[in-house]
Amino acid sequence: MASANQEGDAYMSENRRHQVVVIGSGFGGLFATKALKRADVDVTMIAKTGHHLFQPLLYQVATGIISEGEIAPATRVILRNQENAQVLLGDVSHVDLAHKTVRSELLGHTYVTPFDSLIIAEKL
Question: What is the CATH number of domain 17-120?
Answer without folding.
Answer: 3.50.50.60
